[in-house]
Design brief:
5 helices, alpha+beta, single chain
Length: 166
């Protein structure tokens, strides 16, 4: 089982999926141009900040990533179903992280390029209001954190290596 459903009195932690999280952002999937406008959006978010930092109350602001319903991404034409099924689900695509359905969570995709820093108190209030959908449990939460780290820490080469045989 990848998810658990902690009660409202369980403190905020890494891997918490929270509904109705307000973020300040460009309109989702809009190409930014001179006509673009930013605004407030209510999203499903997953907590990326390390569990130890949250447990020791070292952070007043928390890093979250937006979680999208996989079917909605396909319906909007953002991703193809085959890409989700064959590549993202297998964690072969940087920046996208697949979450299977379960415990009230539909098949979802975390957009690790759509990150927001939000006040910890806001997330704690949402949890108190029953907005924590679930929590990704270990080792899956660490796998998500590793995918996040790989997305941002990989070293890009200026061009691929040449090959003589392929």
């Amino acid at each position: 089982m990848i998810y658990e459903s902690p009660s409202a009195d369980v403190p905020l932690s890494q891997g918490d999926m929270i509904d109705d999280c307000t973020v300040l952002a460009w309109k989702p999937f809009q190409t930014v141009s001179t006509e673009s406008t930013a605004g407030e959006y209510s999203v499903r978010a997953v907590v990326i900040t390390q569990a130890c930092d949250l447990a020791q109350t070292k952070s007043e602001r928390v890093l979250v990533a937006v979680v999208h319903d996989a079917e909605s991404l396909v319906d909007l034409g953002v991703l193809k179903a085959s890409l989700i099924r064959d590549q993202i689900r297998m964690h072969r695509v940087y920046g996208w992280y697949f979450l299977p359905a379960g415990d009230g969570v539909p098949e979802s995709v975390v957009d690790l390029r759509d990150l927001h820093t939000v006040p910890r108190t806001m997330l704690e209030e949402l949890i108190a209001d029953g907005k924590r959908l679930s929590r990704i449990v270990t080792p899956y939460r660490e796998h998500l954190a590793q995918h996040f780290a790989t997305t941002y820490s990989r070293i890009a080469l200026p061009e691929p290596y040449e090959t003589q045989t392929l």
